[in-house]
Amino acid sequence: MSDSFLPVKRKKGLSVRMASLAGGGRMNYSTRVAEELSRARAKEGDMVQVRSKGGERTGVLMPHHEFSDPDVLVLKLKSGYNLGVRLEEGASVKVVSKGEKKERHPRHQRSSEGARKIAVIGTGGTIASYVDYRTGAVHPALSAEDLMATVPEISDLCQIDAKVLFSIFSENMRVEHWQRIAEATADRLSSGDEGCIVPHGTDTMGYTSAALSFMLDELPRSVVLVGAQRSSDRPSSDAYGNLLAATRFCLEADAAEVFVLMHAGISDTSASVHRGTRVRKMHTSRRDAFQSINSSPVAKVDFEKGIEILSSIKPKSSSKVNLRTAMEVKVSLIQFYPGMSTRSFGSLAKDDRGIVIAGTGLGHVSADLIKEIRKAIAGGTTVVMCSQCLHGRVNLNVYDTGRDLLAAGVIPGEDMLPETAYIKLMWALANTSSEKELRSTMITDLRGELSQRREIDD
Amino acid sequence: MSDSFLPVKRKKGLSVRMASLAGGGRMNYSTRVAEELSRARAKEGDMVQVRSKGGERTGVLMPHHEFSDPDVLVLKLKSGYNLGVRLEEGASVKVVSKGEKKERHPRHQRSSEGARKIAVIGTGGTIASYVDYRTGAVHPALSAEDLMATVPEISDLCQIDAKVLFSIFSENMRVEHWQRIAEATADRLSSGDEGCIVPHGTDTMGYTSAALSFMLDELPRSVVLVGAQRSSDRPSSDAYGNLLAATRFCLEADAAEVFVLMHAGISDTSASVHRGTRVRKMHTSRRDAFQSINSSPVAKVDFEKGIEILSSIKPKSSSKVNLRTAMEVKVSLIQFYPGMSTRSFGSLAKDDRGIVIAGTGLGHVSADLIKEIRKAIAGGTTVVMCSQCLHGRVNLNVYDTGRDLLAAGVIPGEDMLPETAYIKLMWALANTSSEKELRSTMITDLRGELSQRREIDD
User: What are the residues facing A60 on neighbouring strands?
Assistant: First the structure.
């Protein structure tokens, strides 16, 4: 790992069990599983049929990691995706056909000489984690290559240039992390890579994708952030599916934007590709936690049928990335609520160059707060109004409250997510040179983050 | 109107038109509409058939209000619901049968002597508003009785005891408004009313419903907040449907809780009844903006088929309301985001007795902020962690970040909405007498606001 901003994070296993290790050669399978594999004479690479409570599944037996669940076999299905199968008491394994011994190293040489290259830039998070079932802790994958090695069919599609930039849980991301990711992706795309995959913790993935969207101007190919809601060694992990789908999307889709790719549903059958400025984590734990808000996902990657494009996307080009990573850090994001102290708003405004408010409904706050906002704007603070409803568009023209806010100089956030407006305001304050240019930047669609107002129909 | 905290609000009409008033007797219909009605010899109370762009509709021609859209006829359909029909150029009206002249006054005497009584306690908002199409301004209804008069079939079901407590847009609601509504509803229910309907602005209706839920202990019958996303004289208004459905729900459902009743979809066919502690406005403008989060609506009121109960509800009883309206106002609600200033958190903590944080994912914040939280808690501030994902449950046991927060003394908000946790913390700080009782109150389900943790499955 090239470096680390913070100590290694540890995660407690959700179903910790102290496994007795198999006496023999097989690494840390439970005795029962090791004995069953031995009885069946099943070896890594063999096509096996497993009968367990979950039914009958056939696939190639995959290598077992040091930290893997001792009761779980990982099968590679015909579709190319990995499935973890728990071998409970009474489950059985049968070899369908012996595998050829796969050469696992060197992987890259298996690809044809002129194969296209995909960059993988690791940043940490659950996707790059293994639960140590003996201690219950989560270890980040030792390297991005290790992570990609869990999906070996990727190297049949392209060359992978994997690197861990840092490894942190995403709640600790700051502006400087976004800047480093932007620089690393720009560097890879300028070197001709066909796309960049950024494994990332899911907690703040939507903030990072918005930041990269604005920082990476004139993007020639795609940057795809991927995460997992289950660490990559768990039977139900969404890591493999998301990594393989992201690779396919970078290679096959004529797309050159920043996206977030995550499971489309709770079953392991397809992924949604969300525009980086429109996506929000809308569930604490489900695999389909990520949703496009006020727009549909731009594409769907069906794990069997391939890619379906759902909306217009900026196509690939030979442009050079125009890196614009400057950000004003004195910006705040607040939600208005009844009983909110206007004094705390006042003290924010004194320090900040910009404030994004998630108001109620069409973009409202109390009459008390409007007075404070007026003062803040007079003092040089830029105030943008979004809605805590998340869905829909602010409209400051309907009620007196909105018209008072407009008169005070508040900039309407249109149908932008409050989080995206926050990121955009940080960026716009650092990348514009006049009040007029700043206002115009905020209400103009730059990266699909807002849409043109249409007549509201009755 | 009994009083008013703020000046009358004005709303700009979305489709203002300057109508030439009909010369004759018919009040402020446009000349074209007035002439068409005159040609057809159609009068209020007649069953008419209207052919317009929207198709053919049959219903009883309803009275036209002083501030109504001059091009819109209001028809009462067989289902009892009102429909506004725009009479564009070329549309025609035909009388199907002449109506008996209905006695509009006195309404209440039409009900049988012993009829059950429903209290209507007006607080303002779009539901009680009429757009003045000549000026584009919205006027609050002159009285709650005027509002109920737009749905005359309610007086066939029950007696209405209507009163305007105040008339404000709901972004201006404060703790003292919640307290006054709680007192007024407790008073009416203690007098034996079968239920209370509270017309309310939609912007902060979810906050008020949560506040009433906690303030009204041992509720014998239901308090139903209703709102409208379109003012009551617009063709597409959801006001009638919601008012009538709320009346039916109070009369017919064996329920004794605080609810929000709003349209279930964008068509005018049914309403959802949401538990007051689980509901959130999730769209700026759609009629089905209100959603139950982490629970399903408790009931559906189909405008044709009646009430369907969808989950268990506290039944009616003869208990006396135990009013517990005390609230600690020194409480804040904040969302954590990357780049958040820990200094501003520190200054909040110095002033506040309680802070609810909408963290990322399972309930996380940056390592920097954890230090500040530790200090705040040591200084006596109560900190509750919810998730900005809204859907799902916080879990502070999975990652180190969460375990550090627990060690610091943070109270997990389980699957409570951040807004509900904010209201509950205000209430709990004022209604408990020890740290231990406060913590236990926050993690115990009192009004359906949180659900028991279950094993997370893989």
Answer: A47, A76
B6 lies within 8 A of chain A by CB? yes
Q: Is residue B253 exposed (0-12), middle (13-18) or buried (19+ Cβ within 10 Å)?
A: buried
CA distance B258 to B223: 5
Instruction: Kindly list the residues from chain A whose CB atom is less than 8 angstroms away from the CB atom of residue B171.
Output: 336, 338, 359-361, 364-366, 401
Does A170 touch chain B if contact means CB atoms closer than 8 Å? yes
Does the beta-carbon distance from A419 to B337 stay under 8 Å? yes
Task: Give this prediction's pTM.
Answer: 0.81
Structure tokens at B322: 């135990």
* Cα dihedral value B149, B150, B153, B155, nearest 10: -20
| Strand (E) or helix (H) holding A163 | strand A159-164
Six token digits for residue B283: 């769209």
Could you list the active site residues of B?
Answer: 126, 202-203, 281
The CATH superfamily label for domain B108-323 reads L-asparaginase, N-terminal domain (3.40.50.1170)
**H-assigned helices in B22-99:** 31-40
> If one looks up domain A331-443 in CATH, what number appears?
3.40.50.40
Q: Do domains A31-97 and A108-323 have the same CATH topology?
A: no
Q: Tokens 């725009």 — which residue?
A: B86
Q: Which residues of chain A are within 8 Å of residue B335 when distances are taken between CB atoms?
A: 333-335, 358
pLDDT, one tens digit for every residue, chain B (458 residues): 333 333 333 343 322 222 222 223 335 688 888 888 989 999 878 899 999 887 888 888 876 655 567 788 878 777 666 677 888 888 899 999 887 654 444 444 444 456 899 999 989 777 766 655 544 455 555 566 677 777 777 878 899 888 889 888 899 999 999 999 999 999 999 999 999 999 999 999 999 999 999 999 999 999 999 998 877 666 667 888 899 999 999 999 999 999 999 999 988 889 999 999 999 999 999 999 999 999 999 999 999 899 999 999 999 999 999 999 999 999 999 999 999 999 889 888 899 999 999 999 999 999 999 999 999 999 999 999 999 999 999 999 888 889 999 999 999 999 999 999 999 999 999 999 999 999 999 999 999 999 977 644 33
Residues of A in contact with B207 (CB under 8 A): 337-338
Please check whether residue B438 touches A, CB under 8 A.
no
Q: What is the ipTM of this complex?
A: 0.80
B-chain residue closest to A360, CA distance? B203
Beta bridge partners of A49: A58, A94
Tokens linked to A65:
């990691």
For residue B164, the cross-strand partners are B122
Per-domain residue ranges for chain B?
31-97, 108-323, 331-443
> Residue B353: how many CA atoms within 13 Å on its side-chain side?
12
Tokens at residue B8, please? 């009358």
Pick the CATH number of A31-97 from 2.60.40.1180, 2.30.30.520, 2.60.40.3080, 2.40.50.100: 2.30.30.520
> CB–CB of A360 and B335 under 8 A?
no
